Amino acid sequence: MELKPFKLFIDGQWVESAAGKYFETVNPATEEVITEIAQGDARDVERVVVAARRAFESGPWPRLAGSARRAVLERMATLLAERTDEFALLETLDTGKPLLQSRTRDLPFACEILRYYAGWADKIYGTSLPAGPQGVGYTLREPVGVVGMITPWNSPLVLSLMKIAAALAAGNVLIHKPASWTPLTAYRFAQLALEAGLPPGVLNVITGPGHTVGKAIVAHPQVDKISFTGETATGREIMRDGADTLKRISFELGGKSPNIVFADAPDLDAAAALSARGFCVNQGQICWSGSRLFVEESVHDRFIEKLLARVKNDWKIGDPMDANTGMGPLISGSHLKHVQEYIVEGKKGGAELLTGGERPDRKGYFLTPAVFDNADNRMKIAREEIFGPVLTVIPFKTFEDVVAQANDTCYGLASGIWTSDITKAHRLARLLRAGSVWINTYGALNPAAPFGGFRQSGFGREMGQEALQLFTEVKTVWVNLA
Question: What percent of the chain shows pLDDT beyond 70?
């Protein structure tokens, strides 16, 4: 697929960056350049903020009836579904994830998100207040304004639309800075949105380094809100950069999620299959990865045997364009090196490497999925987010023991429980400090289900009705009738 260089997308137009610079985006499966992308700087941020501010203050989008916004979002979903093959290919070229997964998982889910929030666009309203016989009181729920969105590289289309759809449904205008490694679907979607009837200036896309473009968006006084998905360390920087303007901020950050298998799990085969998926899908580059697997001692050996069989059979490395491929490459050479360093650390720390952690003899940033057994929750590989296909298996003896270990983390994004005891399942669901708890499954997502984390996994919830709170302000109106 031959692609022309991408310029910045500002106010409905393709424009050169102020410096006229470009950077390359690389296919991680081949290490070859896909195309060139415009590299913005602080001057371009100023230009895009002016366009977005104008679109919010005097443009039609925030003032449209909810039914009109709904129609545009529905049209976006229709156009995206019609172009599934194009967007899936772009996503795979940029990220390296298997094309089959892009086509059958990411694109349908992206369309679902758009349709879900299209349904909300004409159902965002306030409430009446008990003002007494001589007054009228009510609340209005209004758009926040200009929203800066900074999105990651691991599932760029879905993770962007989780923000875009909710923010647009509420009447906001957006400045989107996608990750420099994976900008292709962000630009294509902005073009599609314009075709669907979104007014110019409502969805703008600007690319460039986070330390220049990202920081300038966060610090700009005319940007009302920042919505960020990415690593926790970057989240801390954004909080500092946004402090001077008291920016409204929401975060979906990292995780080190516990996946807990009890001896009374209803189906150990299903638990093994989904536990393997929980750390292998998307090459392990996923925030809710079940990277800490707690297994009750009495079934440990039997379960590990089933798990290893699933890892080896279901998650074979190969060409992302091949329908038989389970895992593609990691996103970049630098990230591959980062993950490999954790594998070395795991061996040094005393964990037993049962399988994987090797680079195949082929071009691309490939790495076989690694399973460490008999680990300790205090080891570095059990404490820090690796963001790659590395699983740490930790045996446990008692309910109280696993609760303490599962919660012994600075994160709190997701968790899994495998048991036939419904009382135990619900007790543990209440005790786990995590934004999502999956019982006898792992990784289930739905546009109607809020997603986000506790502690250093962030704050605010994306998806579901709760996401609309991130992108709206509440205004109270009092009328004196006396």
Answer: 100
